[in-house]
Amino acid sequence: MRRRQDRPHPQDRDTFWLETASVLDWITMPTKASDVSWKAEDFRIKWFEDGVLNACAECLDRHLATRGKKTAFIWEGDDPEISETITYEEVFDHVCRMANVLKARGVDKGDRVVLYMPMVPEAAYAMLACARIGAIHSVVFGGFSPEALASRINDCGATAVITADEGRRGGKTIPLKANVDRALEKAEGVRLVLTVKVTGGETSMVSGRDLWWHEMRDEVTADCPAEPMAAEDPLFILYTSGSTGKPKGVIHSTGGYLVYVAYTFGLVFDIDPDKDIYWCTADVGWITGHSYMVYGPLARGATSLLFEGVPTYPDPGRLWSVTEKHNVTILYTAPTAIRALMKEGDGFVKAHDRSSLRLLGSVGEPINPEAWRWYHDVVGEGRCPIVDTWWQTETGGIMITPLPDEPMDKPGWATAPLPGIELSLVDQEGHRLEGDAEGLLLITAGWPGQARGVYGDPQRFIDTYFSAYPGTYFTGDGAHRDAEGDYRITGRVDDVLNVSGHRMGTAEIESALVAHPAVAEAAVVGYPHDVKGQGIHCYVILQSDVQETDDLPQTLRQHVRQDIGPVATPDRVQIAPGLPKTRSGKIMRRILRKIAEGHPDQLGDTSTLAEPEIVDTLVADAQRFT
Ligand code: 6R9
C-alpha cells in the first residue's frame, strides 16, 4: 500500500510533462512543454507547441500492428439481448469510411461538425472520423431539445451534423433526426446531415442535404490518411453551463488534451490493456464520455464498453448483469446512479456475479459517504478500491483522486491531486489558506489537458476562470482540506446546479421561464435531493394580467423541459408574489436557497431587504414542498 503523501510531485513540471508526452507516438515529438500565462494582459495557454500528431491515429492506427484483432468496443444495447464486439481493425475501417464520406461532402480541416447521437458505436466513429480529417466535433447530448441543439449549431457555425434516425433508452425511443430537422429550421449553414440507421423508425430525408450512413459507407473506400495536426489545433468543442448566460463552447486542444487523458486514464485506472474490460457509463454528450469512454481508453489500446441504455432498464440489476455478462473489471459511474440503485436494495446486486470487478470509479458530483460505503461494501464486495475522481469539462481530465494502490480510508474525499497538478484554497477575498481549512478551490499551475478557450469569445474564458483570483484558475467549487492535505469537494459555490450529475446554470432555466408569456420574473435555486444530488426549485412571478391556475406550475415545468431538455425539468415551481431583493434590486439568492432547503431558521439578516415581508410569504408557501 502506498501513502498518498508519497505521490511523486515533480519539481520540474516542464520536464515531467515532456516525458509524459511520450505516452503518445506523435508524428513529430514535441521538444517544448509549456508556454502558459494566465495574466489577462498576455494570456496564452500552449502545450507541446512544436509537436505534430493526429488524435485518431493515436487511438487507432498505432494499435493495428499489435492489437488489430483485439476488442476496442463492446457495445451493449438497450435491449439486454443485443450486444456486439468491435475490434480495433473494424473500428479503423468504419472510421476511415466515415471520414471519407465527410470529406467527399466538403468537410475540411477546422470545420465544425455537430454530433447529436445516441449511445451507439457510430457516435465514437463520428468523433474519431472528425479527428482524422482535422474537423472539430461538438457533441450535443441527445437529451437536449431542438432549440438547445440549434443554438449550439449556430454558436459554433457547424456545417455538418451527424445523427441517428432515433435513439433508444430504457425501452423508449427519442426522435433524434426529427429534432435535427426542427433545429435546422432555426440554424443556417448546415450542408450535410449524415444519419445512422439505429431503430429503422420512420424518418424524412431532405434531398441534397441528408445522407444515410449505411448507404454511403460502401460508396467510399477505407483508405483515408490521417491529417497531421499541430498540437494546439482544436480537437473538439463541448458546451457546458456556467453561472451566467448561455452555455459556453469549451475548446480542447489535440496534443495537450490527448496526452492528459492518456496519462490520467493509465494512472488512475491502472489499466492493463490486455486484461481489463473497462466500462464507463457516461453519455457521449458529456466530457466523461469523451475523455474516459473514447479518447483515453483507445489512446491506451484498452477495451471500452459502450452502453446504450439506462441502469434501471429492464430492471435495477442492469449494471450488474452487464458486468457479469462481459466480465467487466473496472466500472466508472456517477453517484446519482449509485444512490438510485442503492434504494432498490442489495438483492439486484447480489443476483449477479461481480467477481470480475477489481476497481470502481465515481465522477460527476460529490459522493456521500453512505453511497460510497454501499458501492464499496456491497457492489465491490469490500475488495475493490474506489477512485472518486474530481474534474471538470474545463480540466479535460481527472485532477484529484485517490489511486487504486492507496488506502481507501476517507469515503467521500477525492483526496489528493495527481502528480503535476498544483492546488490552492483561498477565502472569498483571495487570501491563501494553509493547513486544515475550507475555502474556494483554485488550480495554480498549468496542465496540458486544460481548456484553451471559449469558442467565439476569448474574453469570456479569461473573465470566467482567470479573473476572480488573478494568475490562477478558479474552479467554481468549494473544498475542505484536512491536516493531511486531503481534499473533500463540497460542491459548486456559483450559480451552477448539479442535477443527477448534469451541470446546469440557474440562469439558463430562468431565461427559459421568463420566455413563457405568463412569467414576469424567475429565480432558480438548487436544494438537496436524495437521488439526484440537487433538485431544481423555481420561484416564479407572474405577469400582472395573468391569473394563477392549478395547472400553471405543470405547464411551466413542461415549458422548460421543451426549451432545454428533460434533464432541466424543474422539480418544484413556486408561484410567488415577489422575490427578496436588496434595495438596489439584487435578488437575494442566499435567502431563496435557504427557503428551498427547508431551513427558514437560517435566513440570517433580512433587514436590508426592500420588502422583508415577502420572505414570510415565501417560507409559508414553501412548506408544502418539504
Ligand atoms: C467530469 C465532470 C464538473 C463539476 C465540478 C464539481 C462536480 C465532478 C466530482 C465533482 C465532487 C467529484 N464534480 N466530479 N464533485 N466530487 N468526484 O463531471 O465535468 O460536467 O463539467 O462537471 O462536477 O462541482 O465542478 P462537468
Automatic annotation (TrEMBL):
Residues 11-59 form the Acetyl-coenzyme A synthetase N-terminal domain. InterPro entries: Ac_CoA_lig, ACAS_N, AMP-bd_C, AMP-bd_C_sf, AMP-binding_CS, AMP-dep_synth/lig_dom, ANL_N_sf. GO terms for cellular component: cytosol. One of its GO terms (molecular function) is acetate-CoA ligase activity. Gene3D superfamilies: 3.30.300.30, N-terminal domain of ligase-like. Keywords: Acetylation, ATP-binding, Ligase, Nucleotide-binding. CDD domains: ACS. Residues 508-586 form the AMP-binding enzyme C-terminal domain. GO terms for biological process: acetyl-CoA biosynthetic process from acetate. Its EC number is 6.2.1.1. It comes from the Bacteria. Residues 61-444 form the AMP-dependent synthetase/ligase domain. Belongs to the ATP-dependent AMP-binding enzyme family. NCBIfam families: Ac_CoA_lig_AcsA, PRK00174.1. This is Acetate--CoA ligase. It comes from Parvularcula bermudensis (strain ATCC BAA-594 / HTCC2503 / KCTC 12087).
